[in-house]
């Protein structure tokens, strides 16, 4: 009698296993979908300008003046005929960590980067644009720069001041290879990687 009860219990469990498996798979897909939605809600933007100046000595470097940043218009690197809606736009492919490292005379140089970053979900520019070097946060960008081209491309008046710029503190870096990242961050702390790049700081020129 006991064996019959055990057999029936095992039979019932075996019948329920497919249902349990389907439920678990469904929960897994739901979790994956939720993760995807979180990613898609991340800020959007790009790095599309830069300025560099170098001097022959430390004395000259102290008085270096960087040229003004010239932001590249979105219509120059995105299709103007088939515009991408803000909620579908991810990020413009930029220099990656696998690219050939850039050689820079860091000690006697200044470098500025700029671009735009917007929060499509909250109708506002991104909350922060952060610079990381060797995985350490070293600076935040200046925000609120006029980008009429971004406003025009997305037809979003709230993107009018989505521009940003920041100076890379080259003078503080040691000689050798370094890894740089620029992140756009929204008010909830969700980030989007806009740029990653490796560069090498060379010894000062004699």
Any idea what the shape is?
Answer: elongated
Q: What is the domain total for the residues? A: 2
Overall pLDDT metric: 78
CATH architecture of the largest domain: Sandwich
CATH class identity of the largest domain: Mainly Beta
CATH homologous superfamily label of the largest domain: Immunoglobulins
Estimate the helix proportion, in percent. Answer: 25-40%
Give the beta-strand count: 10
Structural class: alpha+beta
Biggest beta sheet attributes: 5 strands, antiparallel
In percent, how much strand structure appears in the residues?
Answer: 25-35%
At the fold tier of CATH, the topology name of the largest domain is: Immunoglobulin-like
Query: What is the radius of gyration computed over CA atoms, rounded to a whole number of angstroms?
Result: 25 Å
How many helical elements? 4
Instruction: Give the N-to-C terminal Cα separation.
Output: 96 Å
Helix and strand pattern:
HEHHEEEEEEHEEE
Which blocks of ≥5 consecutive residues have pLDDT under 50? Answer: 17-39
């Amino acid at each position: 009698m006991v064996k019959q009860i055990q057999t029936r219990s095992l039979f019932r469990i075996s019948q329920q296993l497919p249902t349990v498996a389907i439920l678990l798979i469904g929960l897994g897909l739901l979790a994956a979908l939720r993760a995807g939605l979180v990613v898609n809600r991340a800020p959007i933007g790009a790095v599309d300008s830069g300025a560099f100046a170098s001097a022959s000595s430390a004395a000259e470097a102290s008085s270096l003046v960087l040229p003004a940043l010239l932001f590249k218009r979105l219509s120059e690197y995105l299709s103007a005929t088939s515009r991408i809606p803000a909620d579908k736009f991810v990020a413009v492919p930029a220099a990656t960590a696998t690219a050939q490292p850039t050689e820079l005379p860091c000690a006697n140089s200044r470098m500025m980067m700029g671009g735009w970053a917007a929060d499509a979900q909250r109708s506002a520019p991104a909350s922060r644009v952060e610079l990381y070097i060797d995985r350490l946060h070293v600076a935040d960008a200046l925000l609120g720069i006029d980008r009429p081209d971004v406003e025009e491309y997305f037809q979003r008046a709230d993107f009018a001041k989505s521009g940003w710029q920041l100076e890379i503190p080259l003078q503080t870096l040691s000689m050798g290879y370094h890894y740089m990242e620029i992140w756009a961050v929204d008010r909830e702390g969700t980030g989007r990687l806009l740029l990653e790049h490796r560069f090498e700081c060379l010894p000062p020129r004699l």
